[in-house]
Amino acid sequence: GPGRGAAERPRRKARRRRRWRSATAASAAAARAAQRTAMVTLASGIELEVTMAGDDAAPTMLLFLHGYPELAYSYRHQLAYFAAAGGYFVVAPNQRGYGNSDKPSGISQYRYDVLAADAKQLVAALGRERAVVIGHDFGSIVAQTAAMLHPDTFSAVVLLSVPPFYPLSTFEQQQQALNLPHNYYFFVHSGYWNVAEETLNDVEFAFINFLTGALDSTDALLLPTSWPVPAVPRELRDAAVTAPLPAWLTRDDVATYVNAFRKSGFTYALNWYRAWNATLDAFAERRYPDDYVMPQPTLFVGAKRDLPVLRFEG
């Protein structure tokens, strides 16, 4: 009767969800199996751990640049998709300071022009002259910088989450372009990052929170916006770590990030933020005008609930 059908619907939905989870896990495993990782030495002598997929003789190279606090692993699905589509050689490095890539000391080693040079040199080290560069989060900033400084290497640009704001302009220009409130001192205040780093000792909770928004604020711990940084009660941390994961995320996925950052720590990754002032100083005599337009075809993609988009919308 009608009542029986109504009772059966939730069970059917649950079965579909289980099948979807199983198919997703199998697809992810197949995608990872098709990808290869190698250490690549750049012209500067820096070694990067690089994940590649697809035909390295394909006509178009896509270079994916991760953000903070991520890894090349963040692009595992995109690498699999474009490799299967054919016609693409797809590449995602662990950028300097991340994973098994080199981690030079000194804040100036993480200036945005230095990170952009890594991207250019990686293209050349892989035997290419041109590439499309795609960046997410802080990788968007590196992608913008690379496109601005090396237009002969990067033929097109895709920016994910962080919109165009021309990172080699003055901080005032950036603040206006991003619609940042004046108290967003954390971009330029290096002391802030030292305090923020101290909050990241619970690496598993940090990544559960970052990847799932467990506290309904995906950057509440990893990029706190008040000082001193508020402590998260232990009961909330425990609840977040043990809660069921969303269908698109597995415990193995979480473990990949947790293990990598337990090994490397967050110091070098946070040096990207600490280098903000050093980048501005290095380009004090080379500013881009307010009406600068990037010469390459450029695409920005953001989501309605993406915190960087919500912060920077103007």
Structure, explained:
This protein has helices spanning 2-33, 76-85, 112-125, 138-149, 171-178, 190-198, 203-212, 234-242, 251-264, 267-274, 276-282, 307-312, and strands at residues 36-41, 47-54, 60-65, 88-94, 131-136, 154-160, 298-301. The chain has 314 residues and is of the alpha/beta class. Strands 1-2-4-3-5-6-7 form a seven-stranded mixed sheet. Helix 7 (203-212) packs across helix 8 and helix 7 packs across helix 9. The longest helix has 32 residues, at 2-33.
What is the topology?
Elements: H1 2-33, E1 36-41, E2 47-54, E3 60-65, H2 76-85, E4 88-94, H3 112-125, E5 131-136, H4 138-149, E6 154-160, H5 171-178, H6 190-198, H7 203-212, H8 234-242, H9 251-264, H10 267-274, H11 276-282, E7 298-301, H12 307-312
Order of helices and strands: HEEEHEHEHEHHHHHHHEH
Helix content: 40-55%
List low-pLDDT spans.
Answer: 217-228
**How many strands, which pairing sense, and closed or not: the largest β-sheet?**
7 strands, mixed
Count the strands? 7
- The strand order across the widest sheet is 1-2-4-3-5-6-7
Work out the strand percent. Answer: 5-15%
Counted by DSSP, the helix tally is 12
Rg measurement, Å:
21 Å
Defining key terms:
single chain; 314 residues; alpha/beta; 7-stranded mixed β-sheet; 12 helices; 7 strands; globular
Short structural summary:
This protein is α/β, with parallel strands linked by helices and 314 residues long. 44% of the residues lie in helices and 14% in strands.
